[in-house]
Write a structure and sequence with these properties.
With 228 residues, this protein is α+β, with helices and mostly antiparallel strands. The chain has 9 helices and 9 strands. Strands 3-4-5-6 form a 4-stranded antiparallel beta sheet, sandwiched between helices. Helix 2 packs across helix 4 and helix 8 packs antiparallel against helix 9.
């Protein structure tokens, strides 16, 4: 912060945000340069530290999985985006690398869902999720070196190609075992998540503090109300 030279904008307490720091900030939260002045240096630092803390926790979860494939090494861009994607109650329990809809990324299994994350250099971030309670089955196919994973949901089949042979098998069998558990076990963590009303209240506070614009607030509010 407060670095001499070019800056992205001033803060409410007189501090400034350098351009590299601003780029980190907008990855965490879409704060535009003209809205920086509503925040203090302490608030911005807290935001950056929260992201770093979340990423470290995610890396610990991945390390605990003891993966024997290249997903962790080849999916670093996607892993760095996970703090912006996962809910606070989500825990990662498996990862596989592959391609989906012509994009290369990682397929992440959590206690709530499967998520395909593709952080492209040119086309940006693409995320598609498959809630566990919407998945009817999961299958895999293997060839000489590579395999594929098929995720069956209501009226849809998602196919993840170019998955390491051993990873396609182990990932699919892991998720299959999880789906075979009683529904109350699978959804226990979902029940403990904030309710829609809690999330709406949080959105209202973000708008009041200037973190969300009026348009961003109504867009997120509309998405939440559609879940009711």
């Amino acid at each position: 912060m407060n670095t001499p030279g070019f800056s992205a904008g001033k803060l409410s307490d007189g501090g400034t945000v350098c351009i590299p720091c601003f780029k980190k900030i907008i990855k965490i939260n879409p704060i535009t340069a003209n809205r920086l002045k509503k925040h203090t240096l302490s608030e911005i630092n807290d935001l950056l530290q929260e992201k770093n803390s979340s990423l470290e926790e995610i890396k610990k979860q991945i390390k605990a999985i003891n993966l024997h494939n290249s997903s962790v090494y080849l999916g670093r861009r996607e892993i760095n985006e996970l703090p912006n994607i996962l809910a606070s109650t989500e825990k990662i329990d498996n990862i596989a690398q592959g391609t989906y809809n012509n994009g290369q990324g990682i397929l992440v299994s959590t206690n709530r869902r499967l998520i395909f994350v593709d952080k492209g250099i040119i086309f940006g971030l693409k995320v598609e999720d498959f809630p566990l309670d919407k998945i009817s089955s999961i299958q895999y196919e293997t060839g000489l070196l590579l395999g594929s994973i098929k995720i069956f949901t209501t009226g849809n089949v998602a196919k993840i190609d170019n998955v390491e042979k051993s990873s396609a098998k182990s990932f699919s069998e892991f998720v299959r075992d999880k789906l075979s558990q009683p529904k109350e076990v699978i959804t226990s963590t979902i029940i403990s998540e904030p309710s829609i009303l809690d999330q709406l209240e949080k959105l209202a506070k973000l708008k009041e503090s200037g973190i969300l614009t009026e348009d961003e607030f109504f867009e997120q509010k509309k998405k939440l109300l559609e879940k009711l």
